[in-house]
Amino acid sequence: MTERSVVHATFVIDRVYEATPARVFRAFSNSEIRHRWFVRSENWPRAEYSYDFRVGGQERGDFSPDGKMNIINETTYWDIVPDARIIFAYAMYIDGNRISVSVATVEIKPDPKGAKLTYTEQGAFLDGYDFPAQREQGCRELYDLHLAKELAREDAAA
Amino acid sequence: MTERSVVHATFVIDRVYEATPARVFRAFSNSEIRHRWFVRSENWPRAEYSYDFRVGGQERGDFSPDGKMNIINETTYWDIVPDARIIFAYAMYIDGNRISVSVATVEIKPDPKGAKLTYTEQGAFLDGYDFPAQREQGCRELYDLHLAKELAREDAAA
Questions:
Q1: Cα–Cα distance between A97 and A2 in angstroms, integer?
Q2: A8 part of contact set with chain B, CB < 8 Å
Q3: Do A4 and B85 touch (CB under 8 A)?
Q4: How far is A158 from chain B (nearest CA, A)?
Q5: What is the DSSP letter of A4?
Q6: What is the rounded CA–CA span in Å between residue B108 and residue B20?
Q7: CATH of the domain at A27
Q8: Burial of B69 (0-12, 13-18, 19+ CB in 10 A)
Q9: Is A110 contained in some domain?
């Protein structure tokens, strides 16, 4: 059996987008848009995904970056304030091992340039499988790169 | 509409019990014992309660301390390591307002006196309805008073 351990950590990511709060919120609430930047942005060979965006609803992704390693993301939505706030709890699994359980808050506020998103993750990182710095790096890619690209894409299409 | 706000906070409560780790864990895993110290200890006039202690299982309490104010606790269990660790996410509601969403870790470790329980709550406290210090106080009563009393009771009965 693995040595059991828990590292608790909180990290915060701020990002301003040139988009209205409503458009940033829609990138979460619209399943097609969410799927594009959250699931398909990495072009992984396997990505099974289901999404039910409502309080009490669940999101589940079953991914493999290389056809071998298995990554599972299980999310439950706990709080949704349209155009303003989303709170979800999620667990991550790698190759069947539960590596973390977190609560994450997405706050969206008007900003002179458009909208400011603040992502706060409060996580329990388990048994040495994952570390806060690594998770923060992954989340930064998600918001700085993939969501930014998605909102620029929508902007170009508008 | 209420002014929207989020206060993120983490607090930790340590407590040593004169009981084995297995007995402390059983106070969570056994629904009859859990019901006694978690639900009925306050002798509130209304306490509806359901409990399904397994990974993915839910716990729900619908309480009233005075027959007027309504308190709802909704919990999902995310991680269970027998005799050692329990991680759950939970939301609290007062009179229909969601006041918090938290992830909580209970770690149980052997101690020279019996078992040391470490409770770590990482919470998002919402819209000014609740505050970390108040929640911490409530949790301290739960572990310092009610669970301690329950374990002493079991000890006397043994």
A1: 10
A2: yes
A3: yes
A4: 30
A5: P
A6: 9
A7: 3.30.530.20
A8: exposed
A9: yes
* A133 found inside a domain: yes
Domain range for A116 = 6-41+82-157
Q: Is residue A48 part of a domain?
A: no
Per-residue pLDDT of chain A (158 residues; tens, 9 = 90+): 467 999 999 999 999 999 999 999 999 999 999 999 998 887 777 778 999 999 999 999 998 988 899 999 999 999 999 999 999 999 999 999 999 999 999 999 999 999 999 999 999 999 999 899 999 999 999 999 999 999 998 666 65
Q: Is B158 exposed, middle or buried, given 0-12, 13-18 or 19+ CB atoms closer than 10 A? A: exposed
Domain count across chain A:
1
Whether B105 contacts chain A with CB within 8 A: yes
Interface test with A, best of B58, B87, B120, B129 (most A CBs within 10 A): B87
- Residues of B within 8 A of A120 (CB-CB) are 6, 8, 124
Instruction: Please report where in the chains the tokens 């716990």 appear, as a residue.
Output: B59
Residue B48 located in a structural domain: no
Which pTM value belongs to this model? 0.94
| Residues of B whose CB is below 8 A from A103 | 89, 101-103, 122-124
| B124 interface with A at CB cutoff 8 Å | yes
ipTM above 0.85, yes or no: yes
> Does residue A106 sit in helix, strand or coil?
strand
Q: Does A14 touch chain B (CB under 8 A)?
A: no
* Phi, psi dihedral angles at A55 (to 5 degrees): -60, 125
